[in-house]
């Protein structure tokens, strides 16, 4: 083979990852803790460093971790596109409802003290909405890019 010829890889089957039991076991073990840390960042980011964006990205990284450990095709089988779109739409809808619900209650956009709940609870609701929106976008981008790499029609 000369230096000018392109290097091609033969597909290994449905999964293009190593079959390492160590990587798969570590992924299974770490995944719940990563999700818990993402939830922690989201809920306690209002008073500590962190917040909705970071929490959403950390929670979305779980899907990337699972796809790297088990392959994109098996991950795509359990990752429902409707749930992914629902995550994105739910986050945007909650944020929009809070933002413009304040206007309906006589305040300005995102003026949280006009709601019957405490401002702290309203901030947490906004943080959860932003985290869901960010996680939906990050997972969607990953699926879109990975689907294009693996020969999908939508990329």
TrEMBL record:
This is Multisubunit sodium/proton antiporter, MrpB subunit. It is found in: Cell membrane. It comes from Halorubrum vacuolatum. Keywords: Cell membrane, Membrane, Transmembrane, Transmembrane helix. The keyword NADP does not apply. The chain crosses the membrane at residues 52-72, 84-105, 125-145. It is a multi-pass membrane protein. Its main location: membrane. Residues 22-138 form the Na+/H+ antiporter MnhB subunit-related protein domain. It comes from the Archaea. One of its GO terms (cellular component) is plasma membrane. Residues 1-23 are annotated as: Disordered. InterPro entries: CPA3_antiporter_subunitB, MnhB. Residues 1-15 have a biased composition (Basic and acidic residues).
């Amino acid at each position: 083979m000369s230096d000018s010829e392109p290097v091609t890889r033969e597909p290994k089957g449905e999964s293009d990852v190593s079959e390492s039991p160590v990587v798969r076991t570590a992924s299974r073990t770490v995944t719940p803790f990563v999700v818990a840390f993402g939830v922690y960042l989201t809920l306690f980011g209002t008073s500590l460093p962190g917040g909705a964006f970071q929490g959403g990205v950390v929670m979305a990284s779980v899907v990337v971790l699972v796809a790297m450990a088990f392959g994109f095709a098996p991950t795509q089988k359990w990752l429902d596109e409707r749930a992914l779109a629902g995550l994105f739409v739910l986050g945007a809808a909650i944020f929009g409802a809070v933002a413009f619900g304040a206007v309906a209650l006589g305040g300005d956009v995102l003026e949280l003290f006009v709601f019957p709940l405490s401002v702290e609870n309203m901030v947490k609701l906004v943080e959860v909405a932003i985290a869901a929106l960010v996680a939906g976008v990050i997972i969607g981008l990953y699926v879109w890019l990975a689907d294009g790499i693996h020969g999908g029609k939508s990329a």
